[in-house]
Write a structure and sequence with these properties.
The protein is of the alpha+beta class. Helix content is about 35%, strand content about 20%.
C-alpha cells in the first residue's frame, strides 16, 4: 500500500492553491470557497450540506462562475450517505463535509482533492445505493430552490441572508428580491 504524505503545516487555503484545479476564474472560486467555509466554521451546523452548497452555488453564479448544484449519494468505504455539493467543470467542491450529520470531521474537498491528504478524494460522489435517497433528501430535491432558501428558519430573510452576509465579504451587493427572481427556475441536479 502506498503511503500518503500529509502536510499539516499548511492551511487548507494554501493547499487548495496548490491543487491542479485550473479555471479562468480560479482566484474567485478560491476566495468564494473559503468565504463560505469560514462562515461555516464560525456558524457550525452539522449536516448543513444542502444549505452550504446552495449558498456557494448562488455566490459563484453571482460572479459569473458556471457551476452545478448537485444532490445524490456519496459512498465512503461500504457506507452511503445523502449529500449536496457543487461541481465546477465536473470537479467536486464540498465545504459541508467538514462537519457531517453524524459528527464526523473531515477535510473540505476542493476541485476533487481532499485538502488534508492533498490527493484525489476517496469519496465517491454520485454513487447509488440500493436504498436511494432518504425521505429528507428526496424532499429537498423536489422542493423549488427559492422555497428551500426562503424556508431557512434562522433568519427572517431565510438563507438569502447568509448569501448576503458572505457576499458582502466578497464585495458583492446582493438583494433578496432580485436573487429570488433570478433563481426561481433553479433546480438541484441529481447525480447517480
Amino acid at each position: 500500500m502506498e503511503s500518503v504524505k500529509l502536510n499539516n503545516t499548511k492551511s487548507y487555503r494554501i493547499l487548495a492553491e496548490e491543487t491542479p484545479f485550473d479555471h479562468d476564474q480560479s482566484e474567485k472560486v478560491l476566495n468564494t470557497f473559503f468565504a463560505v467555509s469560514d462562515y461555516y466554521k464560525l456558524n457550525p451546523n452539522p449536516g448543513a450540506c444542502h444549505l452550504m452548497s446552495s449558498v456557494f452555488h448562488v455566490l459563484l453564479n453571482e460572479q459569473g462562475i458556471d457551476n452545478e448544484l448537485c444532490i445524490g449519494e456519496v459512498k465512503t468505504g461500504e457506507q452511503y450517505f445523502d449529500h449536496s455539493w457543487v461541481e465546477i467543470d465536473g470537479k467536486v467542491f464540498d465545504i459541508a463535509i467538514q462537519l457531517t450529520l453524524d459528527g464526523s470531521k473531515n477535510a473540505p474537498v476542493y476541485g476533487g482533492y481532499d485538502l488534508f491528504t492533498v490527493t484525489a478524494s476517496d469519496l465517491e460522489y454520485g454513487s447509488k445505493s440500493i436504498a436511494g435517497l432518504d425521505e429528507v433528501a428526496q424532499q429537498i430535491y423536489v422542493t423549488p430552490f427559492v422555497n428551500y432558501m426562503d424556508a431557512y428558519p434562522v433568519f427572517k430573510e431565510g438563507a438569502w441572508k447568509i448569501v448576503k452576509v458572505i457576499g458582502k465579504n466578497l464585495r458583492l451587493k446582493l438583494e433578496r428580491i432580485e436573487l429570488r427572481q433570478k433563481y426561481k427556475d433553479t433546480r438541484r441536479i441529481l447525480k447517480s
